[in-house]
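Q: what sequence does this backbone want?
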């Protein structure tokens, strides 16, 4: 038993050494970039990268673990043959991935994933000299040779030391193999490990990229290959361009709702905050009394929709003006998100100090990589709070995050752009407050958690009014997405995606106003820029809701379909069944604007 456990652990250590060596090769290969980074950052890239190294090693140990479980009942020679063939194949393949990545990073600026497969047949080539190719081939041969020899000397020979073993030995090895779920998952928390988990630097993307395990990155991308590319011919090119241009006109005059040139901008994104929480939007009375009262003090957009149905999609829609996608989320692919525009970057160029505050796990759904690419001046997350405040399943409850957020605004240099994302109204809807809305069912708990968030928000606004920055500030309150509860079930139901957007603050030139314009989360960036500067064409899916030439519409996107809403058109299309789930009062041509939106999104996504 002892020799089998030792072999199991030695095999894992072997692959850890391979992945660390691969990272060192990357750092040396790009010595010019490495030399521009501090030694501390280089060491941290190696240290943080160990998380993905351990996860990949865990995957690689699964088959050897099962082989060792069976070794008590089969000949040692058979065990050795299986492990030798398995390991040799992995070394050859992994060494190729490591070496190929070295060249691809130089051209594309991101670590190797499934992208090369997306361009097969597209006549896409990468220029590489004979000597560069020769260098890579030699490096691949050397890497394979070194680790094959190392495996033979330090691992394979241990197989020969295996003697007879009882069923107890197999049971121990089976338990050890089962324990691999820990390094594979990489965490005991809610969010499993992902590529963004190893991002540690807020501005130096090179050291973040160096921390990535390229074998893990490629394997993950290949496992999601079906989600990577969307259809090219959902709508023909001429109609796509024609109707897209009609939807996104950016030449009109802007209706100014603020009375200062550079107001502080505070963007508060509330978790799952459906319109049903707010009576002024047709919701339930008493759920959000503070927001209800604040609607009289500000400007309420009462015809506003989320782009998608998850937080990871909502954040990208709000910060980058980029729509949700069917069957996936662009935030899972760092090489794509790093090419997106970011409203905080646009405002930073105008002199704004920027920050993002969240009480949850920054590694959830690749948030870390996305926010790092965004380049916020400051990012606060659950790890920045005392352990005593990490009380919920998802992190720190809203009242404590709002307190921290208020302190950060007081210390920020004006003008500032600060974003806060709440979390307490996420399931399991447990909040540190005496129950206000009674009931043990999920709907009642959901409403009660929303009431808690409303209470925390109300206290924040009251305290903010006492600050020096309030008079020159615009506060925007919205949601990351809607919700199926209460009574919003079905993706063909637009109410599932309807959310609030409320503008407050001393910088407003009017109050107690309702704007009925149809809009979406993706319109937030250019609507903000339209107030403080000029809308930016980089936000190609973002309209200025206050522009004189804006054509009212909203698009929401779910798992594999989308809904299109305008003043006189509403339909929901299912991509799987290739049929309309709803199609109210329209003819064939009326569906073309929505189709052009989706085809434009598909084209843009595929090209990134």
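A:
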């Amino acid at each position: 038993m002892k020799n089998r456990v030792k072999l199991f652990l030695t095999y894992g250590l072997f692959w850890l050494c391979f992945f660390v060596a691969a990272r060192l090769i990357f750092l040396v290969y790009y010595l010019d970039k490495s030399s521009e980074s501090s030694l501390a950052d280089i060491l941290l890239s190696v240290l943080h990268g160990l998380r993905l190294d351990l996860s990949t090693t865990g995957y690689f140990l699964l088959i050897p673990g099962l082989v060792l479980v069976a070794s008590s009942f089969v000949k040692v020679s058979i065990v050795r043959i299986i492990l030798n063939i398995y390991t040799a194949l992995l070394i050859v393949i992994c060494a190729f991935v490591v070496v190929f990545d070295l060249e691809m990073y130089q051209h594309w600026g991101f670590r190797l994933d499934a992208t090369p497969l997306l361009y097969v047949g597209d006549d896409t080539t990468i220029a590489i000299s004979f000597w560069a190719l020769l260098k890579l081939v030699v490096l691949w041969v050397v890497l394979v040779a070194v680790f094959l020899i190392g495996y033979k000397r330090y691992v394979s020979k241990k197989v020969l030391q295996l003697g007879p073993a009882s069923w107890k030995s197999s049971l121990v090895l089976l338990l050890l193999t089962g324990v691999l779920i820990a390094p594979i998952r990489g965490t005991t928390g809610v969010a499993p490990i992902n590529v963004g988990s190893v991002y540690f630097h807020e501005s130096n993307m090179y050291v973040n990229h160096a921390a990535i395990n390229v074998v893990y990155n490629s394997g993950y991308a290949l496992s999601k290959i079906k989600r990577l590319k969307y259809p090219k011919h959902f709508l023909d090119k001429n109609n796509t361009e024609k109707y897209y241009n009609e939807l996104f006109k950016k030449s009109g005059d802007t209706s100014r709702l603020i009375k200062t040139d550079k107001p502080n901008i505070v963007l508060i994104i509330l978790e799952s905050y459906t319109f049903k929480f707010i009576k002024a939007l047709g919701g339930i009375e008493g759920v959000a009394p503070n927001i209800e009262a604040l609607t009289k003090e500000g400007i309420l957009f009462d015809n506003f929709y989320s782009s998608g149905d998850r937080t990871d999609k909502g954040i990208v829609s709000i910060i980058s003006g980029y729509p949700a996608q069917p069957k996936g989320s662009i935030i899972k692919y760092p090489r794509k998100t790093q090419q997106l525009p970011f409203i905080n970057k646009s405002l930073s160029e105008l002199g704004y100090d920027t920050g993002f505050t969240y009480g949850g796990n920054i590694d959830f759904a690749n948030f870390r990589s996305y926010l790092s690419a965004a380049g916020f001046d400051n990012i606060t997350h659950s790890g920045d709070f005392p352990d005593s405040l990490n009380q919920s399943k998802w992190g720190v409850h809203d009242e404590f995050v709002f307190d921290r957020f208020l302190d950060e605004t007081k210390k920020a240099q004006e003008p500032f752009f600060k974003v806060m994302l709440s979390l307490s109204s996420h399931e399991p809807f447990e909040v540190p407050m005496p129950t206000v809305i009674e009931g043990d069912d999920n709907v009642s708990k959901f409403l009660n958690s929303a009431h808690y968030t409303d209470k925390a928000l109300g206290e924040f606004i009251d305290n903010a009014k006492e600050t020096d920055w309030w008079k020159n500030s615009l506060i925007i309150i919205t949601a990351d997405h809607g919700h199926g509860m209460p009574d919003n079930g079905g993706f063909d139901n637009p109410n599932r995606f309807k959310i609030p957007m409320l503008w407050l603050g001393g910088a407003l030139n009017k109050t107690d106003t309702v704007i009925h314009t149809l809009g979406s989360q993706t319109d937030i960036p250019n609507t903000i820029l339209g107030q403080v500067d000029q809308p930016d064409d980089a936000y190609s899916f973002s309209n200025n809701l206050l522009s004189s030439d804006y054509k009212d519409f909203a698009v929401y996107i779910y798992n594999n379909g989308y809904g299109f809403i305008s003043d006189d058109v509403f339909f929901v299309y299912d991509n799987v069944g290739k049929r309309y789930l709803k199609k109210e009062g329209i003819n064939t041509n009326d569906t073309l604007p929505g189709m052009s939106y989706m085809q434009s999104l598909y084209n843009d996504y595929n090209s990134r």
